[in-house]
Design brief:
By secondary structure, the chain is α+β, with helices and mostly antiparallel strands. Among the domains are: 130 residues, Tumour Suppressor Smad4 (Sandwich); 53 residues, no CATH class. The chain contains 9 helices and 20 strands. The strands form 4 sheets. Strands 1, 2, 3, 4, 5, 6, 7, 8, 9, 10, 11 and 12 form a 12-stranded mixed β-sheet that branches. Strands 14-13-20 form a 3-stranded antiparallel β-sheet. Strand 3 and strand 4 form a beta hairpin. The N terminus is likely disordered. The structure holds zinc ion (ZN) (2 copies). One zinc ion binds next to helix 5 and helix 8.
């Protein structure tokens, strides 16, 4: 469906799933699981639709939990003493819109979401996808990405970067828009409305970074080591916004330094200082095995020692530098101007 048609459907049908400013996010992506429970949040009702049948989950009715397990390519849905087999299910509010619900992988994790849940089995495991309002997704990422003491202007800059990414980078996955791991953007629960993460999303509502009339899939990094990188420098392509290396005063003065030891074979693999080879090594040895691609290498009698600066790919907004800019009085617009040169801010809100 074109963006215009989606927007029209959103207005006419007033169903959230059709809204142009919704994003579908594959959640709990770090886990592989064959069983999950779905509960209505306190004082909320959730309607579970499975083929022609539907069930109401509501604490006041004494029936607020559904249990779902994988059976081949299908699901077994159990609510109270009823059990049915279905190819997929959908969970929403009574008005077929956004619901507040809780997912629990027994023995592993419990997480709350706000949106419309779609659940199927994929390759023998459960694959929950939550269709959520763009602004809910933005606030959830801002909360997940930020330390508790992060200044509000930094959170606002993060909110704009995240919203821009969600606006520009759809299509990274086939059956949903984004995953909830750092492959796309790290997302957990929606923060409370009074939190600074929610305030930052609300204060920048609809604002998106644009370069030559196209939204920028804005990347960000934990700390840059003193100068941000362009995608080309680390072997990545960038089809729209080319990025521009920005000097980061805070990281120049307070670089995050690290030392790691790797095998000679891994040192050869990392020789191109490319992001793909760094991530390949991290996938094998652990997410923090090589914290950045900004390092020098030397051999000793035990192998190869890497001495590096910065954390992450080094592209785009530097979170450490953005925090320092805000603490010295910088606004979110100044932060964005600094780390995303030659972009403009536009309001893409349709609500
Ligand atoms: Zn992803
Ligand atoms: Zn920096």
């Amino acid at each position: 469906m074109s963006k215009r048609l989606r927007l029209l459907a959103c207005v006419l049908l007033a169903t959230h799933a059709a809204c142009a400013q919704d994003v579908s996010i594959r959640v709990l992506g770090l886990f592989r699981f064959r069983q999950i429970t779905l509960q209505a949040a306190p004082a909320q009702a959730v309607i579970v639709h499975a083929g022609p049948k539907s069930f109401v989950l509501e604490r006041s009715s004494g029936q607020h939990i559904a249990e779902i397990t994988v059976a081949g390519d299908d699901l077994i849905l159990t609510v109270g003493d009823q059990s049915i087999r279905t190819s997929s299910l959908r969970a929403s509010s009574r008005s077929n819109g956004v619901a507040d619900f809780v997912l629990n992988i027994p023995g592993k994790i419990t997480r709350r979401y706000r949106g419309v849940l779609e659940l199927k089995a994929a390759a023998g495991v459960l694959a929950p996808v939550v269709q959520m309002d763009l602004e809910t997704a933005v606030a959830s990422v801002v909360q997940a990405e930020s330390a508790p003491d992060t200044p509000l202007e930094t959170l606002k800059a993060q909110a704009v970067a995240t919203r821009s990414y969600f606006t520009a980078a759809r299509g990274r996955h086939h059956n949903f828009d984004f995953c909830d791991t750092t492959h796309c953007q790290f997302l957990r629960e929606p923060p409370p409305p009074e939190s600074n993460a929610s305030r930052a999303a609300l204060a920048t509502r609809g604002l998106v970074l644009v370069y030559r009339d196209e939204a920028v899939a804005a990347m960000f990094t934990r700390s840059c080591g003193g100068r941000t990188r362009t995608p080309q420098e680390v072997g990545l392509s960038s089809h729209t916004y080319p990025y521009f290396a920005a000097v980061c005063d805070y990281c120049l003065r307070h670089p995050s330094r690290w030392v790691r030891r790797v095998s000679p074979a891994e040192a050869v693999e990392l020789r191109d200082r490319g992001e793909a080879s760094r991530l390949a090594v991290d996938r094998r040895l652990g997410w923090d095995a090589v914290p950045s691609n900004n390092f020098t290498a030397h051999s000793d009698s035990h192998g190869v020692v890497l001495e590096g600066r910065g954390e992450g790919h080094g592209i785009g907004l530097c979170q450490a530098g953005a925090r320092a800019m805000a603490k010295s009085g910088g606004s979110f617009r100044e932060i964005l101007d600094h780390y995303y040169p030659n972009t403009t801010l536009v309001n893409r809100s349709t609500k």
